[in-house]
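re: ur question from earlier - yeah i can do the single chain one, its not a big deal. heres the input i used so u can compare w yours
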Amino acid sequence: MPIRHLVIEKASKKMPYSKTAQMPSLLKSTVGYIIKKFKDYKDVKDLPRSGAPRKTTLREEKLISPPVIPIKTPFRFATKWQQNTD
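and the output i got, formated as tokens:
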């Protein structure tokens, strides 16, 4: 039986958080979070993360922005830039 279900089972028997936490060796705060989640959502499974789904894949993102090549001195870049603008 998963630990979360074990915690809910013990909580339904009105056991205090400290006693519930001792059996599977959890923190009292973790037991509290599990019980709160069960009361709010009637389930203890992981919830999907918030936020919008990705529009591009990682591969597409690499193609969009090429890697930046570090320049050893900023003066070298400035002279190249000046030559290109003239």
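The mean pLDDT is 81. not sure if urs matches, ping me
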